[in-house]
Amino acid sequence: MSIKITPKQEGVVIGSILGDGYIQKTGSKNARLRYEHSYKQKEYLMWKVSMLGTLFNGRPVFMERVHPKTNRTYKYVRHQSNSTPYLGRLRKGFYPKGRKIIPSNLRDLLKHPISLAVWFFDAGYLCKKHCGSYLYLGRVSSEEATVAQVAIHQNFDINSKVYSKGVKGYALYFNSDNTKKLVGLVKVFASSDMIYKVSLTP
Asked: Is the dihedral of CA 50, 154, 147, 109 positive or negative?
């Protein structure tokens, strides 16, 4: 399926891939984008879907999952995009060997502020006690974490420190001043259920 993507829409896609989104291979050249969020974040999921126009069709699927250890039931929402060569190309860059990485050309991809917004809404955490914030990168290498740090600094003039979380991988830490910059940049994109992510009030 051939589609036209605006710079803003591409920003949502890039931020999603860096965050909680998953690009699933659907053929030799095509792939699709999968969103999966807890039920309480369904509005945020639908906000992302609404931003991407014809890339998504149909309706989300509401599902339940029973945790094997706690036996608690978790409700969540899943929505999958159409399969396209565009997403197939992005998969090759972000999943070169089947595992998601932070590509070395991230600076060229992370251009629109909405990319950073979606990434932070998906994987960020505001530490109100210390007036700082974290952006979790997952199980990436220290080199990949540095690529993310440099891209955010060069594209948005926001500084951070690479923070090791041991076996859980890496995160970027933003001090008080840089958290204010970060929040000021991304809060204009926050859906109502993401306001807590960018509220600096204790």
From this structure: positive
- Of residues 2 and 37, more confidence is placed in 37
Q: Is residue 132 part of a domain?
A: yes
Closest CA to 133 of 190, 169, 94, 186: 186
Query: Is 1 inside a domain boundary?
Result: no
DSSP structural state of residue 98? S
The tally of domains found in the chain comes to: 2
Nearest to 182 by CA among 142, 141, 101, 123: 123
How open is the CA angle 92-42-168, to the nearest 5 degrees?
50
- Tell me the residue range of the domain where 110 lies: 106-195
pLDDT at 29 over 70: yes
Q: Are 192 and 126 in contact (CB under 8 A)?
A: no
Q: State residue 54 phi and psi, 5-degree precision.
A: -75, -5
Starting at the earlier edge strand, list the strands of the sheet with 132-138: 124-127, 132-138, 170-174, 161-164
Residue pLDDT, tens place only, 79-114 = 999 999 999 999 999 999 889 999 999 999 999 999
